[in-house]
Amino acid sequence: MLELPRPARRRIITVANQKGGVGKTTSTVNLAAGLALHGLNVLVIDLDPQGNASTALGVEHRSGVPSVYEVLLGEISIADAAARSTQSKNLWCVPATIDLAGSEIELVTMVAREARLKEALNSEAVEQIAPDYIFIDCPPSLGLLTVNALVAAQEVLIPIQCEYYALEGLGQLLRNIELVQSHLNPSLWVSTILLTMYDARTKLADQVSAEVRSHFGDLTLRTVIPRSVKISEAPGFGQTVLTYDPGSRGSMSYLDAAREIAERGAERKTA
Ligand code: ADP
Ligand code: MG
């Protein structure tokens, strides 16, 4: 396996899009696994009460296991909650349990409610894992959990499904990101757009990808994730597609995308 550059400084990437079913979780776990396969230390924070990222990484997330919920409450550290993925020895996941579902409301009355995750990631305990990359998988909403993810990160990765209405709602997401930039996290930026569920048989997929590239330019990864049954089957086996079917197109595409992300680095291009 070809070595990938270790980032000069830890990269924290939030995977966000308030639309459900666009490939946030799938992209989070497979990109994370791709980077881990190259020997990098990767930590996934599951911030969706559904716990789909935890499932795909083979990490237990029934109610009661130490999870991101207790981390946000300040009761335990990230290291206390992180479990090693069954997929790789240098891939970790802080699971989400159903307890997280009530937290959007509970957080409202808390001190520094938008910065709870950031505080947890800044703590010394994270160095027990010493991640090169942290990926945060967001729920399909723009509530306080997503705001916590945007405040904690440097970069945003937006998966866009090559389907009808793909760009609908993006304006709202970008405005929210700008709000967080101007009030809470000035160093946040959209570093990566990833086209997912590309179906080469349809004209529409090409139209959507052309439109996305004309709008976002170089932020859009060259690699496009194809629609693939293997990708959708993998979580049912508590796996990423990288272990479920290593030679498949879906697996290769996520490996390519992970390499592109690593090679592009974190630096913001100035025009
Ligand atoms: P989100 O996290 O944005 O809600 P998911 O990653 O859970 O989206 O994906 C939604 C559904 O689509 C899931 O059932 C997933 O397995 C499936 N899926 C995601 N990416 C692909 C793909 N490239 N090809 C086929 N199915 C996919
Ligand atoms: Mg999801």
From TrEMBL:
Signal peptide: none
InterPro entries reported for this sequence: AAA_dom, DNA_Partitioning_ATPase, P-loop_NTPase
AAA domain residues: 11-188
CDD domains linked: ParAB_family (cd02042)
Superkingdom of origin: Bacteria
Protein name, as recorded: ParA family protein
Upper taxonomic lineage: Bacteria, Bacillati, Actinomycetota, Actinomycetes, Pseudonocardiales
